[in-house]
Amino acid sequence: MKAFTSILCLLVAVNFATANHQSPITNHGTPPRWEKLGERKVNFAVDRDEILVTASEGRFTALKILVKKGAINLHKVVVHFGDGSEQEVETRDEIRAGGESRVINLEGNRRVIRKVVFVYDTKNFADKRAEVELWGRH
User: Fold this and answer.
1) Looking at the domain assignment, is residue 104 inside a domain?
2) What is the Cα–Cα distance from 40 to 42, expressed in whole angstroms?
3) In the chain, what's the furthest Cα-to-Cα distance?
4) CA–centroid distance for 6 within its chain
5) What pLDDT, in 10s, does the model give residues 13-48?
6) Domain hosting residue 132, numbered range
7) Is 103 domain-assigned?
């Protein structure tokens, strides 16, 4: 019985210590979250569209593009930052309806984005205009 009590006390102590200990990852912030920055209905053909970013919390580390209702071939993305600089990313991604681009990491630290320009063409045989959503990761 004494051995059982000792083991029980040890388990309670370990449980208490574990419950009150936070790992450095948990202690230093929340996991990244994605925020929808805007959307556009795209045209049939090679085209260029802009999405102005008016997010309330405007500092981001990465972007991705979601496509609905039709497919697109995404050629490139140009990100315009708040300080006037730009980052051009050649993507050459074929994104089907319901799909998304790869995650596009932004150069530098968390950046303020003014607008994002994307160049694409459509490969849509169903006569449905694709809808493109821009998402930013904080």
Assistant:
1) yes
2) 6
3) 80
4) 50
5) 444 443 443 333 333 566 778 999 999 988 777 788
6) 32-137
7) yes
